[in-house]
Amino acid sequence: MAKPARKTGGTANASEDTSQPKTARGEATRKAILTAAERVIGARGFNDASIGHITSEAGVAQGTFYIYFKSKDEVFHELVLEMGRLVRRELSQATRDIPNRLDAEKAGLTAFLEFVRAHPDLYRIVQEALFVDQDAYNAYYQAFSEGYRKGLEAAVEAGHIRPGDADTRAWALMGISRSLGERLVIWGDTTPIDEIVATVHDMIANGLKP
Amino acid sequence: MAKPARKTGGTANASEDTSQPKTARGEATRKAILTAAERVIGARGFNDASIGHITSEAGVAQGTFYIYFKSKDEVFHELVLEMGRLVRRELSQATRDIPNRLDAEKAGLTAFLEFVRAHPDLYRIVQEALFVDQDAYNAYYQAFSEGYRKGLEAAVEAGHIRPGDADTRAWALMGISRSLGERLVIWGDTTPIDEIVATVHDMIANGLKP
């Protein structure tokens, strides 16, 4: 696209530079700071959240923050990466033993919505990454769309779903998950997840079956 | 949800307060400022865009901005409202003479993707509204989901689609459009829109038909 590049925060490789804690206590402190940052940035947004808010929420001295992270940008970047890792792990665990793709879609959608309902702040942080740290945002969605595309291609090969462009289908299905996740997080929807999934899976399964 | 309210910019009723230009020339200037703001905020993001950037892009003096808008928040709010108005008009024109819901879904998806490809900056601005002006963001999606829900309920009544929870389906279908729109805007996808729509409509039509 011919448009000026947005500021990406310059933190693309930040996690490689971070001092990794050497002790169990150090690891616990780092984790406490990340958990506090998730809550504070999720609730206030990146610009209004300060390092002081984060350390106060974590119950540590402000100087302690800088032992583990260089900046607010870096902790934000780490949270987006963590959301990606956690969601991919949840989805892979939820779908691992399910051979049929349509059944796996259903289990994956359920696992995703349960994760998002349990981690509303992480969901908001990933959405805000488009405006704060576009490298992290791109990496998050690229990893998902790649995996999704390959899974759909394999399912067409196996005859589990009928032929159709895998990349476009992957973005459409990701869009369904994301929108239903947002309905839980931003709109406070309280419909039981199994009811949401039953409605949507009826559409997806009939829409994709051979 | 039990979480602190985000800053919403306090501009929910801003457009009512704005001085409305009385002359055609005034209207043209106001429009030039809005168009410039769309480009500048879309490219730089809300925080990095300044009123100076906007007036420089519009080719007007900085003081002229304040004849029409109180603040950057107010011009942002107005852009989100405008995106809503324009998209609703496009969709209603594209689907007006189509009696069958499934055909209307296809025409609506096509019109939406064409609009988004032509207005990438407006698309980004609506997404950023979640973090800058949540009232405007909510109003945008509420208007869409309400209209969508009613349309799907009527289609079930008419026997054009099979029964199913209209609200959940509305969010799922909105998610498909949004994700495919984002693929065009953020990822620079160049697939022809009719090919994208053909793939996705195959899934939607089979997923919803009676």
Automatic annotation (TrEMBL), chains A, B:
Q: Region Disordered: which residues?
A: 1-27
Instruction: Cite the InterPro entries for this sequence.
Output: DNA-bd_HTH_TetR-type_CS (IPR023772), Homeodomain-like_sf (IPR009057), HTH-type_Tx_Regulator (IPR050624), HTH_TetR (IPR001647), Tet_transcr_reg_TetR-rel_C_sf (IPR036271)
Give the keywords, sorted: DNA-binding
Top-level taxon of the source organism: Bacteria
Annotated coiled-coil positions are none
Q: Which Pfam families match?
A: TetR_N
Q: Where is the HTH tetR-type domain?
A: 27-87
Q: Where is the composition biased (Polar residues)?
A: 10-22
Residue ranges forming the DNA-binding region read 50-69
The identity of this protein, by name, is: TetR/AcrR family transcriptional regulator
Organism (species)? Roseibium aestuarii
Q: What is the lineage of its organism?
A: Bacteria, Pseudomonadati, Pseudomonadota, Alphaproteobacteria, Hyphomicrobiales
